[in-house]
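Appendix C: a fully annotated inverse folding record. The material below is reproduced so that readers can follow the format used throughout the book. The structure is listed first as tokens, followed by the designed sequence.
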């Protein structure tokens, strides 16, 4: 809902916003996998 709301208000910034969240999600997943693998 948050991203849809911002897409309507700031269409030009939508790609940057989505990219930022994608990077955070991927980084979080990699860290989680690494943690599980180490322990």
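Designed amino acids, in order:
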């Amino acid at each position: 809902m948050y991203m849809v709301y911002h897409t309507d208000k700031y269409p030009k910034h939508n790609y940057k916003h989505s990219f930022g969240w994608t990077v955070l999600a991927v980084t979080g997943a990699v860290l989680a996998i690494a943690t599980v693998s180490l322990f």
